[in-house]
Amino acid sequence: MTARSRLDYTGNIDNQSTAREEQSMRTRTTALFVLAAGLALPAAAVSPPPAELAGVLKANNCTTCHLLSGRTVVGPAYSEIAARYADDKAAAVPVLAERVLKGSDAKIWGQAPMPPSAKINAAEAEAVVKWILGL
To answer: What is the dihedral of CA 38, 42, 43, 45, to 10 degrees?
Structure first.
């Protein structure tokens, strides 16, 4: 008896079992290939901010805690913020702009609270939030 064929109780080769085993192996191989291909796909590209907003983000140390996308150490990535508020961007703008200006409670995104941004004005905060929500 080999792995490719089986003898049934009468001594005949059981090709049906062999075909089922081969199909099962093809299915498992295909599933593994699809899984591996999915893991290798790059994340969707996130556009960097316009120059004037990049200056605001840098001047206020926003990029110390937040990245455009991907894993961050302290705060959520801008793309995560955009995804969380995607259903109601208009209502989110004033709420998030206020959080940028006054800081936020640690319970919103994790363990560390976001400090207030003393050097940013209301118009800049709103512009930054609109850009983030547009990602």
So the answer is: -150
